[in-house]
Amino acid sequence: MTALPRFPAVVTLDQIRAAAARIAPHLRRTPMEVDAHLSALLGVPVWLKLEHLQATGAFKLRGATNALLTLPPEALARGVVTASTGNHGRALAHAARAQGVRAVVCLSRLVPANKIAAIRDLGAEVRIVGDSQDQAMLEVARAVAQEGLAEVPPFDDAAVIAGQGTLGLEIARDLPDVTTVLVPLSGGGLAAGVATAVKGLRPDVRVIGLTMDRGAAMAASLAKGHPVEVAEEASLADSLGGGIGLQNRLTFGMCRALLDDVVLLTEAEIAAGMRHAYRHTRAVIEGGAAVGISAILAGKITATGPVAVILSGGNVDMDLHLRVMNGADDVGPQA
Ligand SMILES: *Cc1c(COP(=O)(O)O)cnc(C)c1O
């Protein structure tokens, strides 16, 4: 019997190391902090990686910056394009402005005016097209084909995955005896990159993906053995929503090979994780960033040694955050 290769050769530890050197001047080095309450609960030291303190409020700046800095000069001269209104769009707009590169963000007419204004404030050019995200994606494809803009995808891209993987290098360096890493999971760019980095350095470390039990496309795809579509539902973990692409090239295979487990969280568990982060660390984090804490609080994690928990972002609507701090256990009425 021939053993399957343990590490798919799509993104390598060397690529992640090169990304770290490339992006370092443009990013914050986020700290790790021990959480005494979670440590007592689990019986092993639990360290929080405070990546919600990253510039633009989420780790996405790592991948977007690395992708931008690896594009050829001709492409940079024409500009970059995306359809993300969330943390990736924000990161790409920020990175493009820092490099003096034109960024175009394609949005559907359904995107609220405050979000459009926020993207414009970052210096990006906004194009409003159609009535759905699918139509915004068609405009991205058109801009790539007809205007020569370079698409920077939110997760399924080698340079993006390598950029997100730099977070794993920092965890392995700051917590050399780490045994388990808890990673929020959506499209899988973060999990694929972090797992490649930490397992490349310390092969015995377990990497666990965490997501909501409502409409999580990667979890459903891993369970089925191939990429599937799921119906999207409102969740406190809005940044973990969205599909993985039926034509997924990289992250599905990497997550299948590298993740030791995937844990699903209810809305009430996600809310409890957000409250814990605020009460014990004074961390204002979005639901998608709380899932690691949530899983420990819910008794869904066991570990034999130090655990690293990635707090992936802090871009939460302040009214929603306040409602959750006051005890709300789901998104409630949408603004
Ligand atoms: C994008 C995002 C994730 C998930 O990252 P993927 O690479 O899509 O798996 C987790 N947390 C936050 C805050 C994000 O913005």
What descriptors fit this protein?
single chain; 335 residues; alpha/beta; Rossmann fold; 2 domains; 4-stranded parallel beta sheet; 10 strands; globular
Structure write-up:
This protein has helices spanning about 15-25, 35-40, 60-70, 75-80, 85-100, 115-120, 135-145, 160-175, 190-200, 215-225, 250-260, 265-280, 285-295, 320-325, and strands at about 30-35, 45-50, 80, 105, 125-130, 150, 180-185, 205-210, 260-265, 305-310. It is α/β, with parallel strands linked by helices. It folds into two domains: about 15-60 and about 155-335, 3-Layer(aba) Sandwich (Rossmann fold), CATH 3.40.50.1100; about 60-150, Rossmann fold (3-Layer(aba) Sandwich), CATH 3.40.50.1100. Helix 9 (about 190-200) packs across helix 11 (about 250-260). Residues about 1-5 have low confidence and may be disordered. Pyridoxal-5'-phosphate binds next to helix 9 and helix 13.
Query: What is the typical, i.e. mean, pLDDT?
Result: 94
User: Could you please say which CATH topology of the largest domain applies here?
Assistant: Rossmann fold
The total of beta strands comes to 10
Which structural class fits the helix and strand makeup?
A: alpha/beta
Rg from alpha-carbon coordinates = 19 Å
pLDDT < 50 stretches: 1-7
What string gives the helices and strands in order?
Answer: HEHEHHEHEHEHEHEHEHHEHHEH
Tally of DSSP helical segments: 14
What ions, cofactors and ligands are bound?
A: pyridoxal-5'-phosphate
